[in-house]
């Protein structure tokens, strides 16, 4: 299943071609019958489905062939997006806080929409002093203190020692201070447009922020940065992809990555590890350098071997012009 120029189709094209063929077979086989053929479940298509799935898995190895997914931004792009927002005003503080913890916690696209205050808990030592670490766990609720899967699912926000502008703990504390004692349990609430007026009640209103406002947050920030969002698919899921790509580049093993993302096995994170074409190029360049180093070793040519006896070989001279 290739193009006329012997190139592979994209993953999405393979899937569409197979589904279109199955639908056409359904119309041709049972054109005037009341029976319905569900080609996704039909036994006759089992081999075809297996072939399609195998082809899709092979195409997923190549960034230019796999199905378009939320892209992983570079560290420089994500840093610029964070610095774009001013945390001295309500919208800027909320956006900066959201972008930082989305990457730190490797949030899914809509996970921030459902995040609640009770999902966050400050860690203290035996004397009750704050350790600088904030635990995040969706099962940290009033009815399940700690939760049955606390150790498996918990993630942490850790105080940054370097750039305080991106410090998740600093932003969390500042956001919670400006948020005040609102009754709503959602952590992201609606900014008050009149926050800087004389008789304003605070930075934020006592109502959750709209779902569409949160889900389009990173996309709008990327657009302001100058990224062509029509050609590049940027969503809130890009923060998750950025975190995974960055950790993988820095040598974090897949077994550790699934603890961060919450996936059941390492096969589920392959798409995140393959989103960055730059990462693939770096691997290729490293392999080329290793191959060049291997070529630099000089080996004897066959003509330099002298057979002194039946099973004994000695080197009479070395032809230094022969290489691999």
Number of helices: 12
Instruction: Please tell me what the overall shape is.
Output: globular
Q: Compute the number of strand runs.
A: 7
Largest sheet: 3 strands, antiparallel
- Structural category is mainly alpha
How much of the residues is beta strand, in percent? 5-15%
Number of domains: 2
For the largest beta sheet, what order do the strands appear in spatially? 1-2-3
CATH topology of the largest domain: hpI Integrase, Chain A
Report the top-level CATH class of the largest domain.
Mainly Alpha
| Corresponding CATH superfamily of the largest domain | Intergrase catalytic core
The span between the termini is 36 Å
Helix share bin:
40-55%
Low-confidence residue ranges: 141-151, 304-324
What integer value in Å does the Rg equal? 28 Å
Key descriptive features of the protein:
324 residues, mainly alpha, hpI Integrase, Chain A, 3-stranded antiparallel β-sheet, two-stranded antiparallel ribbon, 12 helices, globular, DNA recombination
């Amino acid at each position: 299943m290739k193009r006329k120029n012997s190139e592979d189709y994209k993953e999405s094209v393979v899937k569409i071609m197979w589904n279109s063929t199955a639908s056409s077979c359904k119309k041709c086989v049972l054109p005037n019958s009341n029976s319905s053929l569900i080609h996704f479940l039909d036994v006759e298509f089992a081999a075809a489905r297996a072939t399609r799935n195998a082809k899709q898995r092979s195409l997923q190895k190549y960034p230019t062939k796999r199905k378009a997914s939320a892209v992983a931004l570079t560290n420089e792009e994500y840093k610029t997006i964070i610095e774009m927002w001013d945390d001295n005003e309500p919208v800027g503080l909320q956006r900066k806080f959201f972008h930082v913890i989305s990457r730190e916690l490797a949030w899914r696209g809509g996970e921030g929409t459902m995040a609640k205050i009770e999902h966050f808990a400050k860690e203290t030592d035996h004397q009750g002093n704050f350790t600088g670490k904030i635990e995040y766990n969706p099962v940290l609720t009033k009815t399940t203190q700690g939760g049955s899967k606390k150790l498996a699912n918990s993630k942490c926000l850790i105080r940054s020692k370097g750039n305080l502008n991106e410090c998740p703990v600093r932003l969390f504390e500042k956001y919670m201070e400006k948020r005040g004692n609102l009754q709503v349990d959602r952590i992201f609430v609606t900014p008050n447009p009149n926050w800087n007026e004389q008789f304003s009640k605070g930075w934020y209103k006592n109502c959750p922020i709209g779902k569409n406002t949160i889900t389009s947050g990173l996309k709008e920030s990327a657009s302001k940065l100058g990224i062509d969002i029509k050609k590049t698919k940027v969503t809130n899921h890009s923060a998750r992809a950025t975190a995974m790509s960055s950790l993988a580049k820095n040598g974090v093993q897949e077994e550790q990555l699934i603890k961060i993302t919450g996936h059941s096995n390492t096969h589920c994170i392959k798409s995140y590890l393959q989103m960055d074409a730059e990462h693939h190029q770096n691997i290729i360049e490293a392999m080329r350098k290793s191959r060049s180093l291997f070529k630099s070793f000089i080996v004897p040519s066959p003509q330099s071997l002298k057979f002194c006896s039946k099973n004994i070989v000695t080197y009479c001279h070395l032809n230094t012009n022969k290489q691999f």
